[in-house]
Design goal:
By secondary structure, this protein is α/β, with parallel strands linked by helices. It has eight helices and 14 strands. It has a five-stranded mixed β-barrel, surrounded by four helices. Strands 7-8 form a two-stranded antiparallel ribbon. The protein has a two-stranded antiparallel sheet with strand order 13-14. Strand 2 and strand 3 form a beta hairpin. The chain is globular. The termini are far apart.
């Protein structure tokens, strides 16, 4: 696969999430294997400029962080999306809705004191370029109810909405609309990798309460994963590679204005050494 800025990585934790995204890849996708064994399936995303590299990494934020960093260093993509399912934390977020993470909280950091637990939250903001693409994409998806809201991430499967942990989330992360297990790891990997846009997209499969198992058994994960995958693909149809995103017309080369050379739209990235020579007219 060419190492170009036209590559985007989509990471998932579960097979049902992987399959939902894989359904959107065109024919001819190929499997690539990293020297340490991590596998991605790569193919052209129809109707876009993107080569999509899809990975199923398993559960948990630590796992997501380590393997996402490995994949980013290997493929050098321009963007990474974490796509999958989550539990709802708000009454107005229904099963089958999709939450696009404007922020992702790592919720378990803090300090235990004699006065109680003091939260020390970490937070990563979704890439503005991808969040704006998501806003535009959601306006065109009649069959998807989307929310651009914060997401909480912790290494806990929450199945009790009255538990001490649920109360803790509500007290310290009141604006979080969904809870999941991998988002903070993936976006942290993107953050430390450099200029990589990152976004978490989660379909709601349960209400993070005692009815989670019943909802899963009824097919809610499959439906939620399909909705999240549809939103991810719609986002990528709106999103553009950096070299093309700012162009209003055709390509521009170097331009001269006074003592300033402007290489916007060009492909030159080296130092410039020159001398201005005024000529008679």
């Amino acid at each position: 696969m060419p190492q170009t800025s036209h590559t985007v990585v989509v990471v998932t934790a579960l097979a049902v999430e992987y399959d939902a995204v894989r359904a959107h890849l065109g024919a001819g996708a190929e499997e690539l294997v990293h020297k340490d064994g991590t596998r991605v399936e790569c193919g052209r995303l129809p109707g876009t400029e993107w080569t999509l590299a899809l990975a199923e990494l398993g559960e948990g934020a630590v796992n997501a962080s380590a393997l996402t960093a490995q994949v980013l260093g290997w493929l050098r993509p321009e963007a990474v999306l974490l796509v999958g399912v989550a539990g709802a934390l708000k009454a107005d977020v229904a099963l089958g809705d999709v939450v696009v993470g404007t922020k992702v909280y790592a919720v378990q950091g803090g300090k235990l004191t004699p006065e109680g637990f003091r939260a020390r939250p970490e937070v990563w903001h979704g890439s503005n370029r991808l969040v704006q693409a998501a806003r535009s994409a959601l306006r065109g998806l009649a069959d998807v109810r989307g929310h651009l809201k914060p997401i909480a991430c912790g290494d806990v499967v929450l199945t009790d909405d009255r538990s001490a942990f649920a109360e803790f989330i509500g007290r310290h992360y009141d604006d979080a609309n969904a809870i999941e297990m991998e988002g903070a790891g993936a976006v942290h990997a993107a953050h430390v990798s450099g200029q990589v846009d990152a976004l978490v997209i989660r379909g709601i499969s349960d209400r993070a309460d005692a009815h989670k198992s019943a909802a899963d058994a009824g097919g809610s994960q499959r439906r939620a994963a399909a909705q999240a995958a549809a939103v991810a693909v719609a986002v990528l149809r709106k999103h553009r590679p950096r070299e093309a995103s700012g162009r209003a017309g055709g390509a521009e080369g170097a331009r001269y204005g006074g003592d300033h050379l402007d290489f916007r739209g060009g492909v030159f990235h080296g130092p410039v050494v020159g001398k201005r020579v005024d000529r008679e007219r």
